[in-house]
What does this fold into?
Amino acid sequence: MTQANFASVYEDAFPFWNEIPDTDKDYICQNSSVFTYPMGTNVHDGDECSGVILVRCGSLRVYMLSENGKDITLYRLHEGDICMLSASCVLDAITFDVFIDADKDSECYSISGPAFAAVSKRNPCIKIFALEIAVSRFSDVMWVMQQILFMSMDKRLAIFLLDESARTNSDLILLTHEQIARYIGSAREVVSRMLKYFSNEGIVEVSRKGIKILNRKHLRQLTS
Amino acid sequence: MTQANFASVYEDAFPFWNEIPDTDKDYICQNSSVFTYPMGTNVHDGDECSGVILVRCGSLRVYMLSENGKDITLYRLHEGDICMLSASCVLDAITFDVFIDADKDSECYSISGPAFAAVSKRNPCIKIFALEIAVSRFSDVMWVMQQILFMSMDKRLAIFLLDESARTNSDLILLTHEQIARYIGSAREVVSRMLKYFSNEGIVEVSRKGIKILNRKHLRQLTS
It folds into this structure.
């Protein structure tokens, strides 16, 4: 991977790119690396500083982990998304740890935390960019929290199935009950029970292949 | 309230104060107001833009509210604290609503949202300050979420009692079970049941006056 390649990608990914000096552009590119993560591997592990991650392809799952191994998905990152929470060394105000796994085979660019911190110290526009990304993730996390705390399980599952179907542009959701449980912050048994109920109602068809949406209208009614 | 009074307070409260032009200082002061909130009154209500709030005295409770009235305390603001979540019109990245009530009789200064947005557009140091406050609240909220999702009730209650005792510098917690339940994201019945258990164990004494910590060492053991 040459510096020129990084630069051409960063020009699209970072709105601040053309506002900073060439020396800082070079410095960022010199401190960039390419990583490939096979599906299921860990990308970032709690309190280390893995740097600022740009997803080139694939999908990453950002989650919280309790001492006894229970986890809650906070959000997922897709192509073109940037993760600042993996670089808590860049933003002093972030005092919590998250974990990140590759949801699919993924390729990421990573800018070293100290290097990114150094250029953002010299360029307020970078600092603002980094903070704005963190704050917009805050909004995502608040939404997850609202869902988990306040929303009934059938509603949560219905919303998830519709979102996932829209995202993949397919009626067939190719996820296990275990995976869905993790995404919506529930237990596998609860998801299986609810899917069985949906299935009895003719809303979905559950098979080994996945979950097929049969009655989208009914599913939508559950979300309101 | 004169502009000079605002300015002298803002000089201490805002680290950016001496980095911005006098015209912007004047503009902020001209768009500032003083509000007094008797205990229990609502300070900020969801999606309105109440401006940037600086707590002068008293205490504000920031919480999420569900459609059916269930609420979860996110954090509390004390003297000298600044609230940006009440001014979602200032930060585009904030796309969720919170509610704020006065926990005690409180006095606050409020800077109009559009005025604050205008000066922060001209001064990156203000924008960075505002975003950093939002991100550090994000850290608080993540902690609350971790507590609610992962921690057992006895541990949560023990931590709350110790924190509250440290904050008020007293062994006596002058809060109702209802209030405690709200702070720790639980139900009154659950808190009462757990306090009864603590009381049976000789850890606390529960009376009409409040909750008195009798065995601090035992309480601390519960938190680990």
